[in-house]
């Protein structure tokens, strides 16, 4: 493990990184929120299906 090499790589990444504009942040937040809601909806549908299947058996 070469510590100076790793530190230089980290500082290079930090120099290239920039704060996103409000539009970029807003778009990323909307997409992430939609993904979370979609996964939650899929989980809820699976829960309803499994509840229906177990009540029939």
UniProtKB/TrEMBL annotation:
GO terms for molecular function: protein transmembrane transporter activity. Keywords: Cell membrane, Membrane, Protein transport, Translocation, Transmembrane, Transmembrane helix, Transport. It is a single-pass membrane protein. It is found in: Cell membrane; Endomembrane system. Its main location: membrane. GO terms for biological process: intracellular protein transmembrane transport; protein secretion; protein targeting. It comes from the Archaea. The keyword Repeat does not apply. One of its GO terms (cellular component) is plasma membrane. Essential subunit of the Sec protein translocation channel SecYEG. Clamps together the 2 halves of SecY. May contact the channel plug during translocation. Component of the Sec protein translocase complex. Heterotrimer consisting of SecY (alpha), SecG (beta) and SecE (gamma) subunits. The heterotrimers can form oligomers, although 1 heterotrimer is thought to be able to translocate proteins. Interacts with the ribosome. May interact with SecDF, and other proteins may be involved. Belongs to the SecE/SEC61-gamma family. This is Protein translocase subunit SecE. The lineage of its organism: Archaea, Methanobacteriati, Methanobacteriota, Stenosarchaea group, Halobacteria. The gene is secE.
């Amino acid at each position: 493990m070469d510590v100076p090499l790793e530190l230089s790589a980290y500082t290079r990444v930090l120099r290239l990184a920039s704060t996103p504009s409000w539009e970029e942040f807003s778009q990323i937040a909307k997409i992430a929120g939609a993904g979370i809601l979609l996964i939650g909806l899929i989980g809820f549908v699976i829960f309803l299906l499994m509840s229906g299947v177990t009540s029939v058996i």
